[in-house]
């Protein structure tokens, strides 16, 4: 099955022939379990931090504020720096760990980096589950964060490099699909464990993270490393054999030579982070950084981290808030499937721009309803308006899930040349985790001070990022990963001026 007639411009012509082989599908599914672990960690923290037994043990001040009448505030009852640190410490650790992951990804390979991530996940999960004090709790989250840093560094690169060009977007989004599935599973588990009597339900919620952690660890042992990684480490024959295996054809010479040439250029780069700052790499760097900043400024993690808290704030009650979080989790999964089917057909830009309109409108409606009906210490919201908020939240989540969620990871993983790809992915993960940490640490305080205005704050940023996409983000659909410079950057109205050799 030919790869849709894509010309390798840098080598003078020809097509990459590739079949969708079982080894590619299985490898991508196994690798994407790193997303499952990431999503579970995102989803589980919001539910656990709304469980009375968990709050009573680790955050008694917050517990008191949620239980005693007169202290209950619709916007401020969960505002506590320690509680936010439990969630955000994972992302602080991840942004630091990504630089170590850059070294292992380049020098030891994508496969071994995923294995290291799995080991971090296992140890962190055990610590969280057996925690008897706040220090153990945060230490476990920090180790989970190291796992996130290593997994988010290696998995998107692995998926982009092993996938045939014409379905690279769909296979790469398997990572984001697993993130959404992990969030949904976490919400379902929280819904069940919140009902457990005896005060240990939160331990079960945290402990079940061991399942995706073990899946990633075993999967990373079983998968093959990418041809790009093997060739980059001078294992040419092994890389060629793997390329032949994953493409399902003997006609791999053209793609092999392109990877060898890209590797030769990459080896001349002794300081990839310094090279990343050169003028000709600035378009990729700027877009990768901006996509990560904008992804967090959509407000999605504010909703996903604290969905149970958010719905509880809206007066849904403990059970109803977790139930509502499950609904948003299901919408997240289904909408990510939409992205898998559409990203390689209608393209990256169309999805980002459509979602911008949808996210802006839904957040504006949420802000107006909350501003009119939900005061800090009084709730005039009818059941119908409360359901409207849930519908608007689901509308927002769906648009994010088929656009900024998966594409925020897909686009950076495919735009960097091989010589700066690991370094570029490190910067991508670092910026993503930095702003995830900032939002996670600040959201409950922002909710307390901005109140309904928090949604106007995020919708304003959605408008800014949509303008950024309109003018500065090129289309990368159906472009071979090693041909981005010739076929994308040198053709773009603005970025082409950066492609001069000087």
Automatic annotation (TrEMBL):
<comment type="similarity">
    <text>Belongs to the major facilitator superfamily. Sugar transporter (TC 2.A.1.1) family.</text>
</comment>
<dbReference type="InterPro" id="IPR003663">
    <property type="entry name" value="Sugar/inositol_transpt"/>
</dbReference>
<feature type="transmembrane region" description="Helical">
    <location>
        <begin position="452"/>
        <end position="473"/>
    </location>
</feature>
<dbReference type="GO" id="GO:0015293">
    <property type="term" value="F:symporter activity"/>
</dbReference>
<keyword id="KW-0812">Transmembrane</keyword>
<feature type="transmembrane region" description="Helical">
    <location>
        <begin position="171"/>
        <end position="192"/>
    </location>
</feature>
<feature type="transmembrane region" description="Helical">
    <location>
        <begin position="142"/>
        <end position="159"/>
    </location>
</feature>
<dbReference type="InterPro" id="IPR044778">
    <property type="entry name" value="MFS_STP/MST-like_plant"/>
</dbReference>
<dbReference type="GO" id="GO:0015145">
    <property type="term" value="F:monosaccharide transmembrane transporter activity"/>
</dbReference>
<dbReference type="InterPro" id="IPR045262">
    <property type="entry name" value="STP/PLT_plant"/>
</dbReference>
<feature type="transmembrane region" description="Helical">
    <location>
        <begin position="20"/>
        <end position="40"/>
    </location>
</feature>
<feature type="transmembrane region" description="Helical">
    <location>
        <begin position="426"/>
        <end position="446"/>
    </location>
</feature>
<keyword id="KW-0769">Symport</keyword>
<keyword id="KW-1133">Transmembrane helix</keyword>
<dbReference type="GO" id="GO:0016020">
    <property type="term" value="C:membrane"/>
</dbReference>
<feature type="transmembrane region" description="Helical">
    <location>
        <begin position="115"/>
        <end position="136"/>
    </location>
</feature>
<dbReference type="Pfam" id="PF00083">
    <property type="entry name" value="Sugar_tr"/>
</dbReference>
<dbReference type="InterPro" id="IPR005828">
    <property type="entry name" value="MFS_sugar_transport-like"/>
</dbReference>
<keyword id="KW-0762">Sugar transport</keyword>
<feature type="transmembrane region" description="Helical">
    <location>
        <begin position="384"/>
        <end position="405"/>
    </location>
</feature>
<dbReference type="InterPro" id="IPR020846">
    <property type="entry name" value="MFS_dom"/>
</dbReference>
<feature type="transmembrane region" description="Helical">
    <location>
        <begin position="321"/>
        <end position="343"/>
    </location>
</feature>
<keyword id="KW-0813">Transport</keyword>
<feature type="transmembrane region" description="Helical">
    <location>
        <begin position="350"/>
        <end position="372"/>
    </location>
</feature>
<feature type="transmembrane region" description="Helical">
    <location>
        <begin position="285"/>
        <end position="309"/>
    </location>
</feature>
<protein>
    <submittedName>
        <fullName>Sugar/inositol transporter</fullName>
    </submittedName>
</protein>
<keyword id="KW-0472">Membrane</keyword>
<dbReference type="InterPro" id="IPR005829">
    <property type="entry name" value="Sugar_transporter_CS"/>
</dbReference>
<feature type="domain" description="Major facilitator superfamily (MFS) profile">
    <location>
        <begin position="27"/>
        <end position="477"/>
    </location>
</feature>
<feature type="transmembrane region" description="Helical">
    <location>
        <begin position="204"/>
        <end position="224"/>
    </location>
</feature>
<feature type="transmembrane region" description="Helical">
    <location>
        <begin position="83"/>
        <end position="103"/>
    </location>
</feature>
<dbReference type="InterPro" id="IPR036259">
    <property type="entry name" value="MFS_trans_sf"/>
</dbReference>
């Amino acid at each position: 099955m030919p790869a849709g007639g894509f010309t390798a411009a840098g080598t003078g012509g020809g097509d990459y022939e590739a079949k969708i082989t079982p080894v590619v599908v299985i490898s991508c599914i196994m690798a994407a379990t790193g997303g499952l672990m990431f999503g579970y960690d995102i989803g589980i923290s919001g539910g656990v931090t709304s469980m009375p037994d968990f709050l009573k043990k680790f955050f008694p001040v917050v517990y008191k504020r949620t239980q005693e009448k007169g202290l209950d505030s619709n916007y401020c009852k969960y505002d506590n720096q320690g509680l936010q640190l439990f969630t955000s410490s994972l992302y602080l650790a991840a942004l630091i760990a990504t630089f170590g992951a850059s070294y292992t990804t380049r020098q030891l390979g994508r496969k071994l980096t995923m294995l290291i991530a799995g080991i971090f996940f296992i140890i962190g999960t055990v610590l969280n589950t057996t925690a008897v004090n706040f220090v153990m709790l945060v230490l476990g989250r920090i180790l989970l964060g190291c796992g996130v840093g290593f997994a988010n560094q290696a998995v998107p690169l692995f998926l982009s490099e092993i996938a045939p060009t014409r379905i690279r977007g769909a296979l790469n989004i398997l990572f984001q699909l697993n993130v959404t599935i992990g969030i949904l599973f976490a919400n379902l588990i929280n819904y069940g464990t919140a009902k457990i009597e005896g005060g240990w339900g939160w331990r079960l919620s945290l402990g079940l993270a061991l399942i995706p952690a073990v899946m990633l660890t075993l999967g990373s042992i079983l998968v093959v490393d990418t041809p790009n990684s093997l060739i980059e480490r001078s294992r040419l024959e092994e890389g060629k054999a793997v390329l032949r295996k994953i493409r399902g054809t003997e006609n791999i010479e053209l793609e092999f030579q392109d990877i060898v040439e890209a590797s030769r250029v990459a080896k001349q780069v002794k300081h990839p982070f310094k090279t990343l700052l050169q003028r000709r790499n600035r378009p990729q760097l700027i877009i990768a950084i901006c996509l990560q900043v904008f992804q967090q400024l959509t407000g999605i993690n504010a909703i996903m981290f604290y969905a149970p808290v958010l719905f509880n704030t809206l007066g849904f009650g403990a059970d109803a808030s977790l139930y509502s979080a499950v609904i948003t989790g299901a919408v997240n999964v289904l909408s990510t499937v939409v992205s898998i089917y559409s990203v390689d057909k209608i393209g990256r830009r169309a999805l980002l721009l459509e979602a911008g309109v949808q996210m802006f409108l839904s957040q504006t409606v949420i802000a107006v309803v909350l501003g009119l009906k939900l005061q800090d210490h009084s709730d005039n919201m009818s059941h119908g308006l409360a359901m409207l908020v849930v519908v608007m939240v689901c509308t927002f989540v769906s648009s994010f899930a088929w656009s900024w969620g998966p594409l925020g990871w897909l686009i950076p993983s495919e735009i960097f040349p091989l010589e700066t790809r690991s370094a570029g992915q490190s910067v991508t993960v670092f910026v993503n985790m930095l702003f995830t940490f900032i939002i996670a640490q600040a959201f409950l305080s922002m909710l307390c001070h901005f109140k309904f205005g928090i949604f106007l704050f995020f919708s304003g940023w959605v408008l800014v990022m949509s303008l950024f996409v309109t003018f500065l983000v090129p289309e990368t659909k159906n472009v071979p990963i090693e041909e981005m410079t010739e076929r994308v950057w040198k053709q773009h109205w603005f970025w082409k001026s950066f492609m001069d050799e000087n």
